[in-house]
Design a protein that fits this description.
Layout (H helix, E strand, L loop, with lengths): L15 H12 L11 H8 L9 E5 L5 H9 L5 E6 L2 H10 L4 E4 L5 H7 L5 E6 L8 H14 E11 L6 H7 E9 L6 E9 L8
Parallel strand pairs: 1-2, 1-4, 2-3, 4-5
Antiparallel strand pairs: 5-7, 6-7
Helix pairs in contact: 2-3
The chain binds S-adenosylmethionine.
The site of S-adenosylmethionine has 22 residues, from helix 3 and strand 2.
Length: 206
């Protein structure tokens, strides 16, 4: 249990994996995975964040919250944490598990408004669980445009994937520095891209 989570009775409640699987069956690529990330992925994706100097972290597409849990555990009180998820059932679950956390039910294309409403100018790390490669170009570029403009100079955009390495080229088109990390201890094997230094000319916003 994290400092921001609470022990809730799970009796009679659909387990996270089953809620997730049901959503996957109904919404397919919009959910993109049939199981939530393992704690190994969750720990790996935030590893090496310098929490002492971190003022803001934004999680996009939190699902049932395996990564949220780790972020909330590690983030100091001085770090703003914004958790965004579009699905209302996932948001209910997140609010139940993390009652004090800033859980926003919204589409990720609205991320700029969400940041403005909170007076957040810069974000140190975006942790992205969105199935970005399957988004149409326009919303994908709209989200990345906000990431580009709002990310701190030393910030990162960390993108989860269940297709290890396949989208390396795609992220290299958007960022000068891209590193892929493979996480074997997940079912199915997963990984994430750590992206830095946006290529501002790479987006087509028209
Ligand atoms: C692959 S799941 C990742 C969930 C979680 N981060 C994890 O690692 O288990 C993708 C999540 O992104 C959410 N999502 C998809 N499109 C979205 C959008 N346009 N705006 C906000 N959330 C979205 C889905 O509802 C789903 O919870």
């Amino acid at each position: 249990m994290t400092k921001n989570s609470r022990k809730v009775s799970t009796r009679g409640r659909t387990p996270d994996w089953l809620l997730f699987f049901g959503k996957f069956l109904r919404h397919g690529v919009a959910i993109s995975s049939f199981v939530p990330s393992s704690t190994f992925v969750a720990r790996a994706v935030v590893r090496n964040i310098d929490w002492n100097n971190c003022r803001c972290v934004v999680e996009l597409g939190a699902g049932t919250g395996p990564i949220t849990e780790v972020i909330l555990k590690l983030a100091p009180p001085t770090c703003k944490v914004v958790i965004l998820e579009r699905d209302p059932d996932f948001c209910d679950r997140l609010r139940e598990r993390f009652p004090g956390a800033d859980i926003v039910q919204a589409d990720a294309v609205e991320i700029e408004r969400v940041l403005d409403e909170r007076g957040i100018d810069k974000v140190d790390h975006f942790i992205c669980g969105l199935p970005l490669p399957s988004f149409p170009r326009k919303p994908a570029h709209k989200i990345l445009d906000v990431v580009f403009r709002r990310m701190t100079e030393t910030g990162t955009f960390r993108q989860l994937t269940h297709m290890p390495y396949v989208y390396y080229g795609m992220y290299r088109r958007y960022f000068d520095k891209v590193r892929f990390s493979f996480v074997l201890r997940n079912f199915p094997p997963a990984g994430f891209y750590t992206c830095q230094v946006p290529r501002h000319g790479s987006l087509n916003l028209s």
